[in-house]
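Dear Dr. H.,

I hope your travels went smoothly. While you were away I took the liberty of generating a structure for the chain from your last submission, since the lab meeting agenda had it listed for discussion. I wanted you to have the full record in hand beforehand rather than looking at slides cold. The sequence, exactly as received, is reproduced here:
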Amino acid sequence: MPGYQLLADAVLVLHAAIVLFVVAGLPLILIGNRYGWSWVNAPWFRLTHVATIGIVVAEAWIGMVCPLTTLEMWLRVRAQTRAGPYYANGFIEHWLQALLFWNAPAWVFTGLYSIFGLAVLATWWRFPPRFGRGKPSSGRTR
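The corresponding predicted structure, in token form, is as follows:
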């Protein structure tokens, strides 16, 4: 059924976007602090970033399959389609799955996610989020 295929592709695109947010978020925080981009320390950005990698690390440590992966596979089973002669699966499925899903033992991913999560936590210590509405203090008093 094409509707299920479309929904499965949408879930996969969402999954890839979340991975991109987590992976690109760390260098953006580092680069942004170097160049004075205030938005990289906004609470909404930093809390969302640390929570997302925290969920990934927790899932890895307890051996849980990502709910987005589970939902996507459930939808693909219901779609029961083949895309055609060029790809075993659809174009989106083919390329995004190749980007997201790698063949390695689970402990490798748990270790990588944990190290990345620790790096994200280190940015909280080095470049803390800016809570409150005021501009950061210049260190001078009047």
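Two observations you may find useful: The mean pLDDT is 83. The chain has one domain: 2-126.

With kind regards,
E. W.
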